[in-house]
Structure formats: C-alpha cells, structure tokens
Amino acid sequence: MLIRWTLPALAAAIVTLPLAAADAVPTFTKDVAPILNQNCVTCHRPNDIGPMALLTYEQVRPWAASIREKVSSGEMPPWHSTDAHGTFSNDRRLSAADKDTLLRWASNGAPQGNPKDLPAPPKFAEGWEIGTPDLVLTMPKSYDVPDKGTVNYQYFQIPTNFTEDKWIQAIEVRPGVRKVVHHILVFNREPGNPAPKSAFMPVAIASPGDAPVDPSKPKQPQPGFGTGTGTLIATTAPGTNAMWFAPGSAVKIKAGSTLLLQVHYTANGTAATDLSKVGFIFAKEAPKQEVHNSAFVNAMLKLPPGSDNQEVNSAIQFNEDSHITALFPHTHLRGKSWQYTLVYPDGRREEILSVPKYDFNWQTYYIFTKPLAVPKGSRIEAVAHYDNSTNNKWNPDPTKEVRWGEQTWQEMQYTGITYTVDEPLMTGSIQK
User: Fold this and answer.
1) What is the pTM of this model?
2) pLDDT tens, position by position, 159-217
3) For residues 392 and 379, is the Cβ–Cβ distance under 8 A?
4) Integer angstrom CA distances of residue 302 from 203, 253, 307, 338, 423
5) How far, in Å, CA of 176 to CA of 120, rounded?
6) Would you give the distance in Å from CA 253 to the centre of its chain?
7) For the domain that residue 332 is a member of, what is the CATH number?
8) Which H or E run contains 101?
9) 431 within domain boundaries
10) 249 and 318 both lie in a single domain
11) pLDDT, position 101
C-alpha cells in the first residue's frame, strides 16, 4: 500500500520520533545507578556519613520521593559555593542532564529496569576514601564520650616513630564514631616543637562601623588559636573529604615528629567509645613543592543579640610568591555566608570564593581545579556574615551576645588554607 505524506504530516513524524525517545522513562539499572555511583555512594554506603546506603535498587527505591525533593532544591548533593562549574575540582553539583534523569525517574514510578543493565558497584577500600593506606596511626587509647553534657576539646598525641623524613601524597582523618565526632584537627609537632613557619601574616581590615585601618599593617596575634599545637596538616568535619595532593607536591613530616589530634566530641544522647585514626599514602618520589596547611581567624568577633546580618572580617598578606590550592570556611551555628577576595599588590580585586548559604552541618574544603597564583604582597580578605536573631532556627539563644569559643553555641571566624610556595624545594634530583 502506497502512503502519501503531506509536508506537515512528514514534519510532525520527524519531530515526534526523537521526542518520544527523549521522553522515555529512565530506569534505575541503566540510567540512575551510574549517576548515584559517580556522585552519591562515596557518602551513601554502609558505615559512612550518609544516613542511608544508595547502592542497590532495594535501598534506593524507598527514597525516590526524597531524592526528587532534595535534587530539585539543590540540597543534594551538598554544595554551597555559587562559583562556576570547573572552578573547584571537588564540585559535587550534578550536571543538568543527570539532574533531569533523576527527577524524571523519581516522578514516573521509579522503575527498576533490566537487572542486566546494572553496572558493577564501585569498590572502596574498607573504611578509607584514599584507598588502602600505606600507614595508619591510631589514637593511643579510646575515649569514652558521655551521653549528655559538654565535652571540652580533647588532645591525643601519637608518635609517628619515623626514622627518616616522610613525604605524604594523601592524608585522611577517620573518626571512630562519626555520630559523636564533630571535627578533628591534626597537627604535626616536629622534634623540639619549633614555631610553625608561614608564607603569610594576619593583617587588619576594617569591619562596618570601624575607623579605617592600614591594610599593610601587621595584626597582633589573636587569642585562642595556634598556641603550641604545631603545624596543621589535616582536618575532618561533616562534609570534608580526604586530601590528595597534586603530583609533584606533598606534605612533609620530619623524622621523630609527633601527631597531635584536637578532637571535638558532641554528646548526642547515646554514650559511645571513640578510637579515631589517621591514614597516609606516601609519595612515590620526592616532590618539587611542599604543601602547607594552615589557617587564619578573627578571634575578636562579637555578635550583638538579635543581629541578623553581622559582618566579621579577617585578612592575611603573603610575604612570598605562592599558590593557593584550597580554602575551608568555618563558623558555628550562626554563620550564614562567606566571601573571599584576592587583592593584588596593584590594588586589583578578584573574588575567589563565594558561599552565600553556608551550612554548619556540611562543611567543605573548596579545592581549586587550577591553583591560584598569589604574588608576594597580595592579600586574602575573608568576610563572614552571621545571624544571631530569632530568624535563625539553629540559633541557641538570640538574646545573648556571642564571642569566640570552642563549643557550637559559641562562634568562630576561621579559614583553613592550603598552599605552596613558588620557590622550588632544594631536595636534589627527583628520585625514580
């Protein structure tokens, strides 16, 4: 039978066929599982930070409506910077295509699909994001966390027993009981405990209402931070990842050093016994650049009662040509936003990180895809805003003035920073 096509009918047929294919409902096995494997299961797997595992259809299906809600709002995967895709190597945001796939799947019955289409699940070294560590150092004894009450910061010393200097390519801090460990800072204390060296110094900048200041004037050391703890080398908090350093760069730990773990425990209604640890992967060859982890703060912050957008500033000035590889903004329950600006010696200003909706419950080390060149004399200015009003549902007490303190009902204006100094290491030829 001969079918005669009119031009409108032919055009409609040509358009309809691709649209029908595009409108096909995604399935878990073919379309959804690869997205979850790539973006979600690092956290959403047994014994990790995610509240549920998302490895199998049976595990995922009951959460389909929640996945639709969280993905649609951008709450999951958690990411709070508004900088463009590609700025940070650990950007967790889904592509537009992946987001569309998850939403169409969850909105159309969340079908399983053909089991033969299911990809193999990712393989994880048990308990470790960095893979199997070359060395694991564990707290010398466990710590009993009570079911209630305030727990002051606890400090644990772990001898490395290194008989020679070691270069660290990757480092991961692993809480023993995540539900009661709020954060851990790992410091390296060299033999003799010399003062940590730094390529920058704190400088003063004016907060709203203050008199103008000379930004080149060194700022006096601030109380409450960095007194005899050693050199910061690693951090973990809800949302942080293990740290891998680019080829040709590594963290140095000298022979005879001791690790000092600062652990912040939070009672949650159930007593627990914690035994946290630190895992290392050693560099396979001597690096060209030494990686430095450090921090800068404003420990003089003051939040008036009821203030809903209080600004608190801090700044540092580099005294050596350097490259910044990562920034880590940190406040407590009243923190609402962060903004970082690089000010070059000629006065030119460049925004390098914007976090308009900071989330205390999910904190991120923002790792630059391309390290930022920071010429000698440049400044990093950090501006944090706080909500100490009744508008903040997390606010412990909006009637109180709030100052710097270690506990979550107090506050911090703290920035972790990872950087390298441009001068190459004088370590001789690279070992093969």
Assistant:
1) 0.83
2) 999 999 999 999 999 999 988 998 999 999 998 877 778 899 999 875 555 544 454 44
3) no
4) 18, 37, 10, 17, 39
5) 29
6) 23
7) 2.60.120.230
8) helix 96-107
9) no
10) no
11) 95
